[in-house]
Design a protein that fits this description.
twelve-stranded antiparallel β-barrel, two-stranded antiparallel ribbon, 8 helices, about 25% strand
Amino acid sequence: MKLGLKSRSQRVIQDCSIVMGSRKRGENDYCCVDDENLSENYCSWSDLPPELLREVLIKIEESESKWPLRKHVVAFAGVCKSWRELTMEVVRIPEFSGEFTFPISVKQPGPRESLLQCFIKRNPSTQTYYLNQSLTRALRDNGKFLLAARKCRRPTCTDYIISLCADDMSKGSGNYIGKLRSNFLGTKFVVYDALPPAGAKMVKSNSTRTGGTAQVSAGNHPVAHISYELNALGARGPRRMQCVMDAIPASAIKPGGVAPTQINFPISSAESFPVIPFFRTKSSHSDKTLSGPLDCQRDGSLVLGNKAPAWHEHLQCWCLNFHGRVTLASVKNFQLVVSPENGQAGPEHEKVILQFGKVGKDVYTMDYSYPLSAFQAFAICLSSFDTKIACE
């Protein structure tokens, strides 16, 4: 099913009276509809004139720009195929609207002209992290849940499993969308996407080994490499990091540049993410993407680096201007900008693409913009939580 909605034999959709503006309160606000009888039960709705449907959807989309009211737009798309196709035409992606509507929105680039404001809550006892969209200007609100991650320690590395569901964070789940893996020192990371890059074909494989195939199976697509600079001299100062976005061309930040955009989840059932150890490696087989410097950096890929802070003589600390979005000092705080090519910095290299900072105990703001997606920005911020003795 398109737009990132998951297809099941029995799915719950919102009563159509909500979409038409005549919702009745009571127990029948939701109804369970069998996929096979969907067109038969809702033939009267699917036969409505497209012009009328478009006008209704445009009014709903414009008036309900924030959650939880935005669920009515999702309900509109779940009525029938024709309504779903119309929703694809009318509802804009985050790049142009700055809003999340469907699950696939977390894989699409953020707005070009502004930072999309989110925050991360950490639960130290369970080693879990929750990404929420900020719904108000306040630094802390309930927000709209977007993604969750769980930290898994291994003998030689650390994994962060990223999921669409806060209560289901396993690789074999249909909610699994990617992961972050670090090396032993926590200085190098690789972001893996469960989906292939936009425009590429998904390859299904019944084998647990990928070494003998020309194409990689679903669930193991490196899209970014993150490296923290070693602090060999032990000098005090902020961390220095570099992010190579393999899936984003450097031309994306230039006028008229385009970043790859996922349109929908190509797989609609849990079978697409079988319980297969895509990332299992033997101790004798090290992950080449984590060893050595960023030798895997591809020519033409977008490279991000942390913005250099200024030393404040009065406060005796390193400072960055977060424009009120960060209130507490922390070594984890950072701002990422596009690294200049050949040492020549232009206006596009001054714009902050991603900023992350502490605002409370286990609460951090995460603001990002084009060409990063919420998934990519979340993975980069997760790398900052890892302890880095060699970098501090």
